[in-house]
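dumping this here before i forget
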Amino acid sequence: MKKFLITGVSGFVGQYFIDYLETNRIKAHVLGVDLAEHKSSRACSCVTQSFKRIDLLCGHEIERMLFEFQPDYVLHLASYSSVAFSWKEPVLSFQNNMNVFLNLVETIRRLGLKPRMLSVGSSEAYGNINQEHLPLVEEAPLDPVSPYAVARVSQELLSKVYAEAYGVDLIITRSFNHIGPGQKDIFVISSFAKQIAEIKKLGYGKGVLSTGDLRIVRDFLDVRDVVRAYYLLLTQGKKGRIYNVCSGKGHALQEVVDELACIAGVEITTKLNPAFVRPSDNRGIIGSYQRMYDELGWRPGISFQQSLKEILQYWEDLV
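structure:
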């Protein structure tokens, strides 16, 4: 039975990763760590779970936890993953991305532990890209344009240092936008779906949606495809290698609004909210998952339309 340490386990991706282990009956002992409380998922005879509330900025807490658990795999999800938040609180964003990662990987090195670690990065690292260069491959230059993106690039560069110079068994991702049922409404598609579900509930058949810039194009990938990719990377990825985790398709936010409105059967008018417009934003990001396919046989399995339907249904059940 392999031991998985999942940081940030109470977040959106952590629970889906545990569900993946359970659904596929992968024998595992999972230790989840987070500052927030975590509720274990459904019982499964092949997956045992435990939880510790730990501040990953506190070195001695990390050391004790790692020494006692001795993980085989580390899935590092703990982060402040909102670009919007990073513009409001750049110091906190950097500390809770870069510094948390550094504390964790340095403690692993210092203790002489030998887990395989997935350093989860972000497509925000690519920055503003000439559209002629899309879809993005891993060799594309990086040009971060937000505090969050700078933190993620710093984490990626340190990951390579620890892999190449210190010999830590690290695999690195540039993960594109995750979506799926249960995501917080601070993220764009979940926010749209929640607002449209509320409009539908009113029963008038139409309403106004508060949005940011709808011309922005993003590569959205269902979280269930994401965790399947993460498991493959942890178990089969190449040490020190960088992998895009993406859908390979781009969708303008206006298209997302139109599709959700069609699914809900309501008429939507959009209104620009200046609070949702960032000081600088990537105009369009679409990735290539060719490396994931060539080396691991991974490709997306859940369509964008299916994801939107399930996200909308999630919010309709809640509002």
